Amino acid sequence: MTGNRGEGRPAGSEGQSGSAHPSPPPFPDGPGSYPSSSRAFLGQLPPPAAPVPRGRRVPPASVVVPVLGVVAALAAVVASVVVLVQSPPDPVAAAPTGAPATEQSAGRLPSPSPTAPAPGAGSAPSTPVPLGTPARVGDYEVAVTAVILDGDAIVAGANEFNEPPTGRYVVVEATARYVGTDEGNPFWDLSYVFTGTDARQYSDSDCSALLPDDAVDAPTLDPGGSASFQVCMDVPPTAIDGGQLFIEPLVAGNPDERVFFSTR
């Protein structure tokens, strides 16, 4: 059984395939092509620039170079300021020309003037410390401000129960500043002694009379603290004139620790 392959074709399509004329393309240069004039115009356009990654902007070189220069200059200025702040001035160079460098110009505080008397002062009865001048005694700086060689009236007026002296009351007024590292009390830590011309010593510990500013009432002192007070000795009247006063630590290791003070 044979079939006619031409069946179903529209009229006018019969005959050889070469005799058929295909329909012209929509464009003269082929399907999907542009006219020759359009291709010439597109050929004159510059090639597209390389794509830049998303999320990143690259500044032009004309902007990057000046910015880097400014950053480097600021870093140099900051480094110079840090060096100037950290470097202390040369104390010798800072001194005026022709003037010798002193302790103050060299950045050091001047040494405090000593409160103790000159070497040898107070170490013997012949070189007593003057009244009002502080001297180092143990952990204290003591200044004897007054010595009343006839203190009977002071003692009698301080307390009605004070007994009359065996001889005569000698009243010593003093100020003590604690310069130790712990704490101290000038009544318990120091001994006050009057040496009479009879070659005998009279201590405040033997005087039981109460005084207006008795040392027994002196407070306990921290480092730098000071207190003013009075002590008394009961001395024979004939042994007072020409006598000596010395103060020493209550527990004295040797006589070299005592300091003599003037009585006038």
State the main characteristics:
8 strands; four-stranded antiparallel beta sheet; 19% helix; disordered N terminus; alpha+beta; 264 residues; Immunoglobulin-like; single chain
Describe this structure in words.
The chain has 264 residues and is of the alpha+beta class. The protein has a domain at 135-261: Immunoglobulin-like (Sandwich). 19% of the residues lie in helices and 19% in strands. The protein has helices at residues 36-43, 61-86, 91-94, 152-158, 186-189; strands at 135-137, 140-148, 168-178, 190-195, 201-203, 226-235, 244-249, 259-261. A hairpin with a 5-residue loop joins β4 (190-195) and β5. The model is unreliable at 1-20, 52-58, 91-95 and 99-114 (pLDDT under 50).
Strand percentage lies at 15-25%
CATH architecture of the domain at 135-261: Sandwich
Kindly provide the name of the CATH class of the domain at 135-261.
Answer: Mainly Beta
Largest sheet: 4 strands, antiparallel
CATH fold call of the domain at 135-261: Immunoglobulin-like
- What is the CA-CA span between the terminal residues? 168 Å
Helix-strand string: HHHEEHEHEEEEE
Uncertain segments: 1-20, 52-58, 91-95, 99-114
